[in-house]
Write a structure and sequence with these properties.
- This protein has helices at residues 8-16, 23-32, 42-54, 59-72, and strands at residues 3-4, 37-40, 74-75.
- It is mostly helical and 86 residues long.
- A 3-stranded parallel β-sheet has the order 1-2-3.
- The longest helix is centred in the C-terminal third of the chain and has 14 residues, at 59-72.
- It is globular and about 30 Å long.
């Protein structure tokens, strides 16, 4: 299976327009359908949460995304600072 790292801007764009058929939204749908494996590292996850909060994405939507990332993404080692909280 193809392994993909998705830039945080793609996640942000998809989360800001959850009902659209935009390319970012389609990318997230393809990932959730198992068309490719998402690769996620702690620094990228930290950046993602920070940017979503900054863009005032609903906290429940962020939590839902984090649950999916935890459940179906491939996690690679790295360090994550505790200075940011979701």
């Amino acid at each position: 299976m193809v392994k993909v790292v998705i830039d945080t801007s793609v996640f942000v764009a998809a989360m800001l327009r959850p009902t659209s058929q935009s390319s970012p939204r389609q990318i997230l749908s393809l990932w959730r359908e198992g068309c490719f494996s998402l690769v996620m590292a702690p620094p990228l996850l930290e950046e993602l949460v920070t940017r979503l909060i900054r863009q005032q994405v609903n906290l429940a939507d962020i939590e839902y995304l984090l649950i999916d990332i935890k459940a179906i993404a491939m996690h690679i080692p790295g360090s994550m600072s505790s200075s940011h909280s979701p």
